[in-house]
């Protein structure tokens, strides 16, 4: 097996993941769930992402998602299942993905040999993912692979995203970062969601955010200006390195040439989606 260049797996993941995560910022998700009987955009997010787990309760969803305030999760789960079953939620999710990708990329891209190749490569990578201690990955891995290439690629991107995410949570626990400390330190790195988006989407208050920053300062990870210290920068680097270690199997299985090609194809698809407005302009940033 050809060894991968340094950070090749991380770079590949970084361009594949947006194909999955664009769904959560789209009007298509709320619209399809409203048609299915769940007329609440926030509840639609929790139902869409948790549906592979079955009729899960709030505790399970909070544990699997990690960085959402439990009170917010409990406001919507398990009540969402009274309006839409997990099975119907999965159908609504896939319809939303189809609508979103047709709108962002257009029929020509969806029918292209490049997208079909990206789907084939990403699915091949997922063959090396393992279920133990990866609840969100494992739940999605039990779902059938859609036939349409754009939906198959989205499915594969979902598997790769949740596989890496499950591993990342293990790294966060090892580093002793609670959910909001993880978010605040990531934001301080310049690579995470802005505080505006964290507070709006994760259920935390401004006071709780400031308390998390205070705890990080107490550990010497954040300075008085809200920037990572040298120790904080090193911790975030160690977190990503550990996440890479836990996430290496699918990319090693794909091999250096496959990873390079998937990175090329995924980068073009993610770039086109971004240019079409897949994500809010102010999503990422320290302020």
From TrEMBL:
It comes from the Bacteria. InterPro entries: HTH_67. This is SalK. It comes from Streptomyces scopuliridis RB72. NCBIfam families: SCO6745_fam_HTH.
């Amino acid at each position: 097996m050809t060894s991968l260049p340094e950070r090749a797996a991380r770079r590949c993941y970084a361009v594949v993941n947006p194909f999955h995560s664009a769904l959560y910022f789209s009007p298509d998700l709320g619209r399809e769930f409203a048609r299915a009987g769940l007329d609440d955009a926030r509840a639609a997010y929790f139902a869409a992402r948790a549906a592979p787990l079955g009729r899960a309760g709030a505790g399970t969803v909070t544990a699997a998602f990690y960085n959402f305030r439990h009170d917010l999760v409990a406001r919507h789960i398990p009540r969402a299942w009274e309006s839409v079953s997990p099975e119907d939620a999965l159908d609504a999710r896939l319809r939303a993905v189809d609508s979103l990708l047709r709108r962002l990329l257009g029929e020509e891209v969806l029918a292209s040999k490049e997208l079909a190749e990206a789907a084939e490569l990403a699915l091949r990578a997922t063959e090396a993912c393992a279920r133990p201690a990866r609840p969100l990955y494992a739940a999605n891995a039990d779902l059938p692979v859609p036939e349409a290439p754009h939906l198959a690629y989205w499915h594969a991107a979902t598997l790769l995203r949740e596989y890496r995410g499950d591993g990342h949570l293990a790294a966060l626990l090892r580093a002793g970062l609670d959910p909001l400390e993880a978010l605040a330190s990531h934001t301080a790195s310049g690579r995470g969601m802005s505080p505006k988006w964290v507070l709006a989407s994760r259920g935390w208050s401004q006071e709780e955010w400031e308390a998390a920053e205070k705890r990080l300062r107490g550990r010497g990870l954040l300075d008085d200006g809200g920037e990572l210290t040298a120790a904080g920068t090193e911790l975030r680097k160690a977190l990503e390195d550990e996440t890479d270690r836990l996430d290496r199997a699918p990319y090693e299985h794909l091999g250096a040439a496959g990873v390079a090609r998937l990175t090329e194809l995924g980068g073009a698809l993610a770039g086109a989606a971004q240019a079409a407005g897949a994500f809010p302009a102010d999503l990422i940033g320290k302020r």
